[in-house]
Design a protein that fits this description.
Helix content: 10-25%
Oligomer: single chain
Number of helices: 10
Structural class: alpha+beta
Shape: elongated
Mean pLDDT: 78
Radius of gyration: 41 Å
Number of strands: 27
Distance between the termini: 121 Å
């Protein structure tokens, strides 16, 4: 800069005069510097004092000292916390890193730990620090492992005693973002084992007492297994009544393995939305299961729509309405899955003008024995899960059905019934191999299902010229039928029997007459797939 102020030499200026001008310029610059030096020194002291004051201010108000951080973490977790290692960070952002964290309930410090955290990284902002804002930019946690006792048990009461919900009102210090990676939530089961929820990613924004927060989660469900992705708004947290906390959002639940539920199978996918209070979440969802079956039956597509209310405090679910579609058959249902010590399912379902083959297909490994329209209603109970018993032992069904126009799908069975119908009308049985007339024109009656066996008392079916009433069973596993009862025919018993049996029964015909029918004949329907038989059962063997 001094060099730039020196006048350029002039070829016409003598050397002596040029030297004098240079000396005068140097003396002037030195004099100017001497005059400005006090101000430069003062400014330097001001800057240095400001830096020192900033350091002192940051030191006095530094929020990331251990004695400040430990209560902050306990505030965030609502728990008592111990930390194995801790160190501060300064650049580019203020904060700290803590490892080996153990979490215990404040209200139950003597109980076993409810969780651990491998690494906790907290990051702030310098402007917030200097402006004394109680705000943290980021809390990042890796390897969180929480273990909770079974809901409703004595251990849960000791771990979460009455009034402890006040610990979860949220921190006084605002946290702009919380990130949780590669973590696990274990909920112990009443009998044995645990439900394990693996959390791939959990993102929460605006965690602050008295305010709502936004969230997004990607995790694996414990039972049944499947992937959950959800996002929405949660809060503000209600300390006195947690159930009043509001939430809303959307979700997907995919790759759900229904085999986890017992002797059923299929891969379900669903999507929907939810809104309401934590103790009464209203949810709507659409579901698709392309390969549903029961106990190795035929995989069948099932689509559904449901509206339910979920109690987020205890996991109880009330199904306001469910509409299921399989083949050409629509199933309407409503009920609940609830219970304090294991969830019991209670469902009322009905079918109007459905198809029998659609309902039986998921249960049948072999060809479906009957086909045709069907109406039914039933109450279904699935008792709480117990590793000692299977799905069929837990399933209880009470209901009734009406099949107004049924036919046998097994050709030999249909021919047998068709021939019986023709004889019952007083005609001769024909043997037309191409005939495909429905053998049963009506089938109705009450049913119960227990231990894999369908039982009926008062099953009524009609063929042209005859009406039968039967009692008996059908085994879903072996598909064996055993029904006994009687049939009333228009013709006499001698017409119903053929050959030598007709000759023997003709004298007994008056004893089998029932006005206005021609005869009342004891029969039996027995057999297994491919060998179903309808025979006369004179001795009424059960």
């Amino acid at each position: 800069m001094a060099h730039a102020s020196v006048p350029r030499p002039n070829k016409k200026t003598p050397p002596e005069e040029h030297a004098q001008q240079s000396r005068r310029s140097s003396r002037s610059s030195l004099l100017s510097f001497r005059r400005a030096r006090p101000w430069l020194i003062a400014a330097s002291f001001v800057v240095l004092a400001g830096v020192m004051a900033g350091i002192w201010f940051a030191g006095e108000h530094w929020p990331y000292r251990y004695r400040e951080v430990k209560p902050l973490i306990e505030d965030v977790f609502g728990s008592q916390v111990t930390i194995t290692r801790y160190h501060r960070t300064y650049f580019p952002h203020p904060g700290f890193i803590a490892t080996g964290i153990t979490v215990r309930r404040k209200s139950a410090p003597d109980q076993p730990p409810i969780g651990t955290v491998q690494t906790l990284f907290v990051q702030g902002r310098w402007p917030d620090l200097f402006l004394l804002r109680k705000r943290i930019a980021l809390v990042d946690m890796t390897g969180v492992h929480m273990v909770l006792p079974p809901p409703g048990t004595r251990a849960a009461h000791e771990d979460f005693p009455a009034g402890s919900a006040g610990d979860f009102t949220g921190p006084d210090t605002q946290i702009l973002e919380i990130e949780v990676h590669d973590s696990v939530l274990d909920i112990l089961r009443v009998h044995d084992g645990r439900f394990t929820f693996k959390v791939r990613q959990l993102h929460i924004e605006n965690v602050h007492k008295g305010e709502a927060m936004r969230f997004a989660v990607d995790m694996d469900n414990a039972f049944p297994s499947g992937q959950i992705r959800a996002s929405g708004v949660f809060g503000p947290l209600s300390a006195r009544s947690p159930g009043e906390t509001l939430l809303s959002g959307e979700f997907t639940f995919n790759r759900v393995d229904l085999h986890d539920l017992g002797q059923i199978a299929g891969t379900l996918s669903s999507s929907g939305r939810f809104t309401g209070r934590l103790d009464a979440i209203e949810a709507e969802a659409d579901t698709q299961t392309p390969d549903f079956d029961v106990d190795r039956g035929r995989p069948s597509p099932v689509a559904g729509k449901l509206h339910c209310t979920v109690n987020g405090l205890n996991g109880d679910v009330t199904f306001r309405s469910m509409q299921l579609q399989t083949g050409k058959t629509a199933i309407d249902a409503a009920g609940s899955v609830a219970g304090p010590h294991g969830k019991e399912t209670n469902i009322d379902l009905s079918v109007k003008r459905g198809r029998a083959e659609d309902l039986l297909r998921p249960f049948m490994l072999r060809p479906i024995p009957i086909a045709g329209p069907v109406d039914l209603h039933a109450h279904v109970v699935l008792t709480p899960e117990d590793p000692k018993i299977g799905f069929w032992d837990r399933l209880h069904v009470n209901g009734a059905f009406d099949v107004p126009a049924e036919r046998m799908t097994d050709s030999s069975s249909e021919k047998s019934l068709t021939a019986f119908s023709q004889r019952a009308q007083g005609g001769k049985a024909e043997h037309d191999e191409t005939e495909s007339a429905d053998a049963i024109s009506s089938l109705a009656g009450p049913v119960t299902i227990r231990n894999e066996v369908l039982t009926t008392h008062g099953l009524v079916f009609e063929v042209a010229g005859a009406r039968a009433q039967l009692d008996g069973t059908f085994n879903f596993h072996t598909e064996a039928v055993h029904l006994t009862g009687s049939v009333a025919t228009k013709a006499s018993i001698a017409h119903d029997a053929t050959g030598f049996k007709s000759f023997l029964l003709r004298p007994l015909s008056p004893f089998f007459r029932k006005k206005p029918a021609g005869a009342v004949i004891p029969i039996a329907v027995t057999g297994t797939p491919g060998n179903y038989k309808v025979t006369q059962n004179i001795t009424h063997k059960k």
